[in-house]
Predict the structure.
Amino acid sequence: MPTSRRAPRRLSAPEPGWTTSADVVIIGSGIAGLTAALRLKDHVDKVLVVTKDRIAAGSTQWAQGGIAAALGPGDTPGEHAWDTLVAGAGVCDAAAVQVLVDEGPEAVRELIALGAMFDHDPDGELSLTREGGHHRDRIAHAGGDATGAEIQRALIAAVGAAPEIEIIKHALALDLLLAEDGGVAGVTLHVMGEGQRDGVGAVHCRAVVLASGGLGQVFEQTTNPIVATGDGMALALRAGATLRDLEFVQFHPTVMYLGVDAHGQQPLISEAVRGEGAVLVDFDGVPFMQGVHELADLAPRDVVAKAIMRRMLDTGHDHMWLDARHIGGAEGAAAFWERRFPTILATCRAHGVDPVTDLIPVAPACHYASGGVRTDLHGRTDVRGLYATGEVACSGVHGANRLASNSLLEGLVFSRRIAAVLPEELPAPRDPAPDARDVGLVAGETREEVQRTMTSRVGVLRHESGLAEAAASLEKLGARAGAAPDLAAWETTNLLSLAQVLTDAARLRQETRGSHWREDHPDRDDVAWAGHFDTRLIDGEAVIEFVAAQPSDVLDPFARPDAASVGPTSNHEGGSRS
């Protein structure tokens, strides 16, 4: 089984036709990128934010459920940590989890102080609900089910009021410019605009913060927006950084099923709907999560996704159903849906389903990359001057399966931590060294073949035979390198590079753990596989190495809270849960 393969070390591109400079370049404009920009602006002379589309086009605005933190009565960071560690299936970084849960409440309060308007109950207290894997009501939400959009609005408003922050829109980050010592000297961009900054250019800078999101478009069906083509991960790999745990791709269990021919971004049915009492049922109307896990329909996402897939395989159906017709209690389902989930309600109705009276067809689809660019507790990577935060990063908090609503929190907390150390670590401006790295591109039309291969062979269910077929198919696609540079070719080359690494890591991990499900190795093996697969590009070879987890990470250092202190599942907003 291969543990290395050839990969391009740089994207083919025209020589830069324009240049500019900044102290820090932030690639990405979601919660992670804008938080970093706002906290850095007072400590460096110039911050430049690069966004691939509009400033609000990334994944943050699509977050429905909310942001998790120990903000409610009786809740503690320790309880939040326990739930995070359990969901992460034995390979979380315990120190990173501790940072997340300890600093999370203050970070959320600062977000509120910045202007993000979260929902409150009739008594004026922050309204908190529950999602899968949580034993407490600790999910703060806004606009019912429009949390991400509200956070994005508040951050954009704050950045708009900060003249120290410059933004370049419609710009794809291509490759880092590296100094003689291998550290950051700048970044090349392709700007889809007019005037002086059009086409390929170079930004000379002292540090780069990657906040570019995930790789969801590597699969045919995903909840990720079209811009999520793994550009930051691929850029970091080519520059010499380490990618960790790419095999742990989370498939959200309840994505609205639109038919076998549906491709691209699919409508997400938030876990919060189950948090309000909705249940999964099969075609006979039988609820099937009872007895599968102590939290039933609110089990961690990998458990629910696997249960849905098993029922689909057993019954021969291509989806299951979510029954939310009874939620709302005395308020009534119609009024409750309008108040609590207006966005999801409108989306369902736009596709001919009224969740007030109809079952919602659901099936798992690609949702979140728990792995990414390996960082330390302050977002540092292997490359001097390169930091990463948010979904592009692997900070260690998610392990093999991200706990619901920890994603927004991770971007918030670790961007704050980057900003706390980066100003003191900025090197002097350096000139880029001559770049003799070999280049390559595959044509944009290759993307559909990559997506079909990944969906059919490296999706929710994995097996050595399918993974081997995928690896062979992807290698043949890579042999087609030589395409002319354009946006489609750059994005597709990034996706193909990551697809190959992901597939190889999935072959090497011969166990089932968290979101990685091997049919031929159905059990979790903490003796052989408690650890991480790290990938680095060395002399043009993508080399994968297994790194054993620290004993403290495997053994879960936090004592589980007393079940009696946690109490039964409850709902601060009324209604019952099953």
